[in-house]
Amino acid sequence: MSSQSVQQKKKIAIVGAGLVGALQACFMAEKGYHVEVYEMRDDIRKSEKVFGRSINLALSCRGKEALRMLGLEDEVTKNGIEMFGRMVHDYKGGTKFIPYGKENEAIMSIDRRKFNELLISAAESYSSVYINYCHKLVDCAFDRRELTFEKSETKELKTVKFDIVMGCDGAYSNLRFNIMKNTKLQYSQEYIPDRYMELRIPPNADGSFMMPKNYLHLWPRTTFMLIGLPNVPDHSFVMTLFAPYQIFESLDSDRKVIEFFRANFVDALEMMGEAFVTNAFRTLPPLPLVSVKCKPYNLEDYGVLLGDAAHAMVPFYGQGLNCGFEDLIVFNEFMEKYDHDFKKVLPEFSEYRSIDAQAMNDLAMRNYKEMKADVNSRLFILRKKLDNILYWMLPKTWVPLYTSVSFSRIRYHQCMANRDWQDKVINRAVVTLLCCTMAGLTYLGFNMGYFAKLNSRLAPWCSRVTEMINFK
Amino acid sequence: MSSQSVQQKKKIAIVGAGLVGALQACFMAEKGYHVEVYEMRDDIRKSEKVFGRSINLALSCRGKEALRMLGLEDEVTKNGIEMFGRMVHDYKGGTKFIPYGKENEAIMSIDRRKFNELLISAAESYSSVYINYCHKLVDCAFDRRELTFEKSETKELKTVKFDIVMGCDGAYSNLRFNIMKNTKLQYSQEYIPDRYMELRIPPNADGSFMMPKNYLHLWPRTTFMLIGLPNVPDHSFVMTLFAPYQIFESLDSDRKVIEFFRANFVDALEMMGEAFVTNAFRTLPPLPLVSVKCKPYNLEDYGVLLGDAAHAMVPFYGQGLNCGFEDLIVFNEFMEKYDHDFKKVLPEFSEYRSIDAQAMNDLAMRNYKEMKADVNSRLFILRKKLDNILYWMLPKTWVPLYTSVSFSRIRYHQCMANRDWQDKVINRAVVTLLCCTMAGLTYLGFNMGYFAKLNSRLAPWCSRVTEMINFK
């Protein structure tokens, strides 16, 4: 009881009411804290739907577990749809299915907006959570534990006090920028050459999906790709085109756009409709993709970065959200381990978690290449099959990378180390096989007299050398 | 004449009057521009000397050439002193000389403050240059081409217009931070685990140097090191201790400091004096070292980052200043190439120069290890000797890395590529030698009957296999 009342006196300020911010508000409220959330935008439950700025989410094991801990899993997943693997589309519209894992293993496609709305409602259901909308962070006085926000309607400045501040304000985190000005933060941001554009395949006239619904549809084209995720509310597919900005720049007329789509995504073009696609290219700017790493995640004993604010990653593994939600599970575990002593919780969390989030960040960048190019190669499919056979034979030892990342809670850095170990084993096996073959052939060669001529010429020299060094 | 008057109408705003900012003011004034420099600090020619915050500068080929282009080389170098190599001190005070290059090749040690004073005076000698002191950049409105400064005495805000803005405001560049907020900048900052502390060996009572003056004195101790550079104005040595912050933290009493110095730098301790050293550890905070990379260096056709603001590097190659000055030479060349058309000059300069500055940044990080550890190893000295022999035999092909970086204007990325190529050649030579030896021994072994027993056992199998596959 007394520890509970100490917590209630501590004021937690969460910057950002996106998915991670809203869920962390729930976690902290569950622990008995008073939580103020400050969100730059207006309440999305009331605001108009804007097309073209979202990438559908793929919820997998780690994300689901965080929801389960707060009793939110069912409510969220009934708004999603399972995807059991990649459905790869070739140039002519033919398809090939590559499963993600075992038969029943699937990731879940969920509408980002609907998901966020659910979590905001969940957070606001706690009496100790208050969400301040239209509050943009403009200044931090960390030494005085003060944040200053600008209210977007009135431009009025408001300064608030906090005990612990949590930055859940995404890849372009304002809180992180302020931390950078004040401390020695290890930091990197990398914009990849690709941009993305959101497109859409509508439902059929009868309201059904236009393509098989339980798959992530993928058009890999080496230097660019199109993906499509099923969307439950309206049975559409949220399509995303990823391509270097030079390609977007070159598609500067309706004719070029249509030619490009006909040459590369003929089936998708038919489903989207030419008018829709050309209109999208005329009106939507291709959006950038950034990868952010930093360390530490904590600001002494009074601040912490969570989710994209700490480790924004490229979206090619579908782990951005799952990694952010797992941050919250881990944070929760450290809160329990150190009995809410933030002097220990914050630095220990940072030390432990940054190793995993950085590994995931690197894996996402690796998958960027895999999705665009490798899924087309025979070697990639052969490796995938070999992995699955070894996984079946050695279910505890040989967990394929995608399985460990998406269908387990094995620490990300361990997933990466396992994969590197697997690569090494396979490479060594291949090299050993080659060496044995070579040695065998050489030996046969000797015994079959192929080296006889060489031998007879060198023999006199050999015996002379032998005599000289007195070997015998 | 008409092009000249166009230039005079363009207003160049330079943020920072450090070495690079002051020299760039001279370059732009020479080209006929009106230049306003904004410096956060007061005029250093009038301000009090602060001990403990500088690392002496090593001026080499690239830096000298920039000065020569403005007729400033003689004035600067008469305030410096040549260093022909590293004088490595062992634990007992014994020394060993490792030259930097050929007999006459030297880098120059120069007092940072004196150097900066000279360049500020040089800049102010142009009627078209005006330096505004105590002006701290607080905001940028790039779309309106406006910068806002806070005057440090009055806290008054002052907004100024510019045509081209040049960020020469160092590793913690405020201009760069503002660019980051507004554009897609590739960016990384890395604080290395080492900190540094400035110390000093005073001159002898008769005013002479306490150690041989024409060397960079070096006490490499694997995980930390002490360096000493001769200082002309007063014949002292500016000493810098580089060590992981854990070491600085552990030296928390006078006794521990003295023990540490006695064990590692006994000769230096004697010259500095125990009281001086313990006092330094009591009063000076160890300072951080940061490595910054970013790209692009330009902000469309109206802004550019130069020197440390674009590429702050760790100080272990003595190239930070030289790289910054070479930026200005290259910038000048692009100004001439594109006849002052900033639409071309700025992006082309960025594309060309960032490759080299990033390579130098990486080389500095490599040298960090070399200076601390490798100079003690036999392999390092052997390699150095081998490089010098090959350089003597192939003066155009085999230029040692240090020579190409410090005594030539070969592009930094080329210096790095050359070194990587040299490493590959040496590695292949060693591997080839080993393989030949192995093959020779095996052959001898066969002919001397060492494999006879093995042979007689396997022979029946061999002939069967041979028959089966019908080779004969």
UniProtKB/TrEMBL annotation, chains A, B:
Source species, domain of life: Eukaryota
Pathway: Cofactor biosynthesis; NAD(+) biosynthesis; quinolinate from L-kynurenine: step 1/3
EC number: 1.14.13.9
UniProt GO MF annotations: FAD binding; kynurenine 3-monooxygenase activity
Keyword line: FAD, Flavoprotein, Membrane, Mitochondrion, Monooxygenase, NADP, Oxidoreductase, Pyridine nucleotide biosynthesis, Transmembrane, Transmembrane helix
Pfam families from the UniProt entry: FAD_binding_3
Predominant subcellular localization, coarse grouping: mitochondrion
GO process terms (BP): 'de novo' NAD+ biosynthetic process from L-tryptophan; anthranilate metabolic process; kynurenine metabolic process; L-tryptophan catabolic process; quinolinate biosynthetic process
Family of this protein: Belongs to the aromatic-ring hydroxylase family. KMO subfamily.
Protein name per Swiss-Prot or TrEMBL: Kynurenine 3-monooxygenase
Species this protein is from: Helobdella robusta
